[in-house]
Amino acid sequence: RGDGQAATINQQIAERLRADGLLTLFAEGTTTDGSDVRPFFSRLFAAAIETDTAVVPVSLRYHIDGAYDPVAPYTGDQSLADNLRGLIGRSRTQVHVHFADPIPIAGQSRREIAKLAHDAVRNGLLAPPPLTGIQPAPTAS
Fold it and tell me: Rg of the chain over CA atoms, in angstroms?
């Protein structure tokens, strides 16, 4: 990110897409608390254009007892061990995964794709969680 390795990284991403057709990228370039979405780095979408690979935006939302979960996101100066301790010390965390429609690549610029992906991830993040019939597991007494 910005240290002159963009061309090399894009080449590696394109090779992976050609070989497997699947790659997960966090286009914000960092982790956040999940309350909103930072701008996406458009250069990360160059390999998708080069390989004509559709982009599927995915939103991850963490909730506990129906409310925003401030513990689950791995952010800031927090260590992985601190994050895991916070998660292990609780009875449950809900993760809502929202897959948006694939973004077709043909005729789109990196910036256009980044904006479409950003908007789709943000919409998935801010939408109300789906209602499910899943009930919490009983706790041992």
Answer: 18
Question: What are the residues whose beta carbons fall under 8 Å from the beta carbon of 36, sequence distance 6 or more?
Answer: 122, 125, 126
**Beta strand segments in 1-141, E:** 58-64, 67-68, 94-99
Amino acid at 38: R
Q: Judge contact between 55 and 48, C-beta under 8 A.
A: yes
Confidence (pTM):
0.79
How many CB atoms are located within 10 Å of the residue 106 CB? 7
Say if CB 73 and CB 34 are below 8 A apart: yes
CA 122 to chain CA centroid, nearest Å? 10
Extract the tokens encoding 116.
Answer: 């479409």
pLDDT tens for 60-103 read 888 887 778 888 887 878 888 988 888 888 878 888 889 999 99
